[in-house]
Automatic annotation (TrEMBL), chain A:
It is a multi-pass membrane protein. Gene3D superfamilies: MetI-like. The gene is appB. The lineage of its organism: Bacteria, Pseudomonadati, Pseudomonadota, Alphaproteobacteria, Rhodobacterales. The chain crosses the membrane at residues 94-118, 130-156, 168-187, 226-255, 275-298. Its main location: membrane. It holds the Pfam family BPD_transp_1_N. GO terms for biological process: transmembrane transport. PANTHER family: ABC TRANSPORTER PERMEASE PROTEIN (PTHR43163:SF2), DIPEPTIDE TRANSPORT SYSTEM PERMEASE PROTEIN DPPB-RELATED (PTHR43163). Keywords: Cell membrane, Membrane, Transmembrane, Transmembrane helix, Transport. Residues 94-291 form the ABC transmembrane type-1 domain. Belongs to the binding-protein-dependent transport system permease family. This is Peptide ABC transporter permease. The keyword RNA-binding does not apply.
Automatic annotation (TrEMBL), chain B:
Its main location: membrane. PROSITE patterns: ABC_TM1 (PS50928). GO terms for cellular component: plasma membrane. The keyword Transmembrane applies. It is a multi-pass membrane protein. The gene is dppCch1. InterPro entries: BP-dependent_transpt_permease, MetI-like, MetI-like_sf, OppC_N. GO terms for biological process: transmembrane transport. Pfam families: BPD_transp_1 (PF00528), OppC_N (PF12911). This is Peptide ABC transporter permease. It comes from Pseudodonghicola xiamenensis.
Length: 305, 299
């Protein structure tokens, strides 16, 4: 087990370094950051001075090394726009994105798992068909459009929920639904498939033969085993969802890290964008690592691979 | 075979041909039929856009701004009304099908090429090749797609070429994952061993023995990734960092209509519904193809 964790950890760190290099070099495509920073009216000397000031005249690898070592110490440089340390800016915004991510995954699990279980108990029944329809339709629903529909219905027509902002918990209801429904189909299908497989296994028949009540068979024996892969899928989906929160945050004007990313891209604020790509990637890496470890802990067969 | 089809008694003994079975499966599958019809219709609309569109999708008319659609009291002059610049909404919608389908198709082809080569090589050769490909898949999955695509489009500008290239270079992961797994299964089959034993070259084995036997899975992933690319393009255009105005993109139309959503919700509802229907159609078609191609997987 220890060896497994060590191996996965090494891999996760290697992935993190590669991602950091790619995200750094991607934004190097930008051409001349000094010219962009100086603005259109700047003279040649101004640009040259800026280039020297920010160190853009050094070789790319030196700049990457410099950026990486600062980043490892939690220093992501200074935002071009706010003239403040990027780390602090992002840290202030992360709590909203994290809240949204946790609520979103909770919503997805609370709707998808019961639906998946119900669908598996009665295959091809009405509820199975409804669940299948929801998962097929859910995958095709553009999240930005779904968000706008919710705003039209619940904020404009009915006036039940506030359309934007973060002041109260009611502001988080619609963003949670929009972010969470995206993870629902996958979780539901996996729960259903897992339950179907477990329900046809010998120990379920044994439990029933012993005369265990049906509810006890379903939840104590079956669901506990079927839920194992769902837990790790949820962790991976959580990583995806945080990266996808940029769309949801921009619709509902939640000033979280995703919103900051969107604004910073529009403002050419390279240090902030680089840091955000790295941080969102780190979330994914940490969540998949935790999912793998959890899986190996729950199911020893996983450790060999 | 023709005798078997004409003679009812003989047909019962011989049974249906594989071709008949396939046709029966295709036409007996509701999802595939519905999805295929929707996609085929929208492809036709995209191809014949100049013939179908009642107006020039770019022609502005300040005198005819924000005309409502016919079902909300408008006239047949503009069946789906006009937008804030007086452009005919139906015409923009029709031309928008071209943008969505083109981006979806080309992005799926690019990512399909990258991902298939990686997946097939990883699955067939195993060992170090597999380790490298698996690592690259992990790296790719760790990159936040929307964020990276937005940043690159912001840097390089939002032309169709840039959009297609960015999406093509980002969406190859599922191809690699699926084809790696299916190649590993096929690799151990007898016909691969037979081809090896008669001295077939590795490229020949990959192209003539492996590829035809995993092409079913490839087609399913192509449809799913097309849908994915179309949704992403719409989301990026909605965020203002995708296809640039005045190009008619459905995501952009939703974004332009957003500000007037309070009084004219149809501006948002119409392009969003079409986008939803197209993606739903593609997904139904993909799921259907999977069922038809591999009946043993039907649940």
């Amino acid at each position: 087990m220890f060896q497994f964790i060590l191996k996965r950890l090494g891999l996760a760190i290697l992935v993190a370094f590669t991602v950091s290099f790619i995200s750094f070099s991607l934004l190097f495509l930008a051409g001349d950051p000094a010219a962009a920073l100086a603005g259109e009216t700047a003279s040649g000397e101004d640009i040259e001075a800026l280039r020297h000031l920010y160190g853009f005249d050094r070789p790319m690898m030196v700049q990457y090394g410099d950026w990486l070592f600062s980043a490892l110490r939690g220093d992501f440089g200074e935002s071009y726009y706010f003239k403040l340390p990027v780390a602090g800016l992002i840290f202030d915004r992360l709590s909203i994105t994290m809240t949204l991510g946790v609520c979103g995954i909770a919503f997805a699990l609370l709707t998808a798992v019961p639906l998946g279980v119900a669908a598996a108990i009665r295959p091809n029944s009405l509820i199975d068909r409804i669940a299948l329809f929801l998962s097929v339709a859910g995958q095709a629903l553009p999240s930005f459009w779904f968000g706008l529909i919710l705003v039209v219905v619940f904020s404009i027509k009915l006036g039940w929920l506030p359309p934007s902002g973060t002041a109260t918990w009611r502001h988080f209801i619609m963003p949670t639904i929009v972010l969470g429904y995206y993870a629902m189909p996958a979780i539901m299908r996996l729960t259903r498939a897992g339950m179907l497989e477990v329900l046809s296994s010998d120990y379920i028949r044994t439990a029933r033969a012993k005369g265990a009540p049906e509810m006890r068979v379903m939840f104590k024996h079956a669901l506990r085993n079927a839920i194992i892969p769902v837990v790790s899928l949820a962790a991976v989906q959580m990583g995806f969802m945080l990266g996808g929160s940029i769309v949801v945050e921009s619709i509902f004007a939640l000033h979280g890290a995703g919103y900051l990313a969107w604004e910073s891209i529009g403002r050419n604020d390279l240090p902030t964008v680089q840091a955000l790509i790295l941080i969102f990637a780190m979330f994914y890496i940490v969540f998949t690592f935790l999912a793998d470890v959890l899986n190996a802990w729950l199911d020893p067969r996983m450790r060999s691979s | 075979m023709s005798d078997a089809m004409t003679d009812p008694l003989l047909a019962e003994i011989v049974g249906p041909t594989p071709g008949q079975l396939l046709r029966r499966r295709i036409f007996g599958h509701q999802g595939l039929l519905i999805g295929g019809t929707v996609v085929a219709l929208l492809v036709l609309v995209a191809i014949f856009a100049p013939l179908l569109a009642p107006h020039d999708p770019y022609a502005q008319s300040l005198m005819a701004r924000m005309k409502p659609p016919v079902f909300l009291g408008g006239t047949w002059e503009h069946p789906l009304g006009t937008d804030h610049l007086g452009r005919d909404y139906l015409s923009r919608l029709i031309y928008g099908a071209r943008v969505s389908l083109m981006i979806g198709l080309v992005a799926a082809v690019i990512s399909g090429l990258i991902g298939s080569v990686m997946g097939i090589c990883a699955g067939y050769f195993g060992g170090k090749v597999d380790a490298v490909v698996t690592f690259l898949i992990n790296v790719r999955l760790a990159m936040p797609v929307v964020l990276v695509a937005l940043a690159v489009v912001a840097i390089l500008g939002g032309s169709l070429t840039v959009m297609v290239s960015v999406l093509g270079l980002l969406l190859w992961d599922r191809f690699a994952v699926v084809l790696r797994a299916s190649t590993r299964q096929v690799r151990e089959r007898e016909y691969v061993a037979a081809a090896k034993s008669i001295g077939a070259s590795t490229p020949r084995i990959l192209l003539a023995e492996i590829l035809p036997n995993i092409v079913n899975n490839l087609i399913v992933v192509v449809t799913l990734e097309m849908a994915h690319a179309i949704l992403l393009e719409a989301a990026l255009s909605f965020l203002g960092l995708g296809v640039q105005p005045p190009t008619p993109s459905w995501g952009l139309m939703v974004s332009e209509g957003k500000n007037m959503m309070l009084f004219e919700p149809w501006l948002v509802m119409i392009p969003g519904t079409v986008l939803f229907v197209l993606v739903l159609g593609i997904n139904l078609m993909g799921d259907g193809l999977r069922d038809v191609a591999a009946p043993e997987n039907r649940s």
